[in-house]
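User: My collaborator sent over this chain with a note saying "see what the structure looks like." That's all I know about it. Can you take a look?
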Amino acid sequence: MEALIYLFKDYTFQTVALGSAILGLISGVLGSFAVLRKQSLLGDGVSHAALPGVVMAFILTGSKDTEILLLGALISGLIATYFIINIVKHTRIKFDSALALVMSVFFGLGLVLLTYVQKIPNSNQAGLKRFIFGQASTLLQRDVYFMVICGVILLVFILLFWKEFKLYIFDDEYAKSLGFPAHRLNLLLSFMIVMAIITGLQTVGVILMSAMLIAPAVAARQWTNRFWVMVVLSALFGAISGIFGTAASSLMAKLPTGPAIVVFISGIVIFSVLFAPGRGILQKVIHRKNLKLFLRDQGGDGNVPTV
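Assistant: Without extra context I'll predict from the sequence alone. Here is the result:
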């Protein structure tokens, strides 16, 4: 307990934990929209597609400033998202196929560019790989400020377009019939998801970022049928995972922060799937057992038909 109290007083831990909590909150909110829109894998595709943008930003500027590298990642992620949306819109290719195609092409290009940079003499490319696997321990105060600014911008957009987004994700055809620009809403929502993904690249990396986007929303969905409650719970689960994942990595030697956060939120998902009232597996098993006993008491054979 003393070690934990001392840890929470440590400035470095406070910086990393705050950044991870902000990331979890942003990811939880935007992930709720992605999950209900059945675009959960968009986070995986965009995070992988951001790698060539990071490397190209370094090649063009020679700078390893986080803001410049993330700007390159944002541009690359937006281009990939634009390709995915238009491939689905103008061809017969399904969303998952378009996403897999764009993701593999962009990520392959990113690895080629990264290999090229590593062979340039005196290129000073050390540190670029942190965007692949994440390195939350390198978060600085200015990085946290950047995440706060991005988070505030995203939350303001969500509040401004709350009704429009909610109508669009549940019934886009009805939204179109009311005169809402469904395509523009889709582009705006996709842009916001891309921003949330780019914000977390330095913390958990391109490989694990999709888990940060999806897992809090999946866990929250098990506990409620109301959308706003799901968004709040998802943000809460994400923030808690960020803090406790950071604490676990600080207390245990050689435990990376990004994977620790993902493992913690995965534990919340497993607990929710098993024990959540109404949707939990345990409650369904108990309900099925009680139904068998009821049918047996009514003179039946106790066999419950499966659907």
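A starting point for your reply to your collaborator: The chain is about 80% helix and 0% strand.
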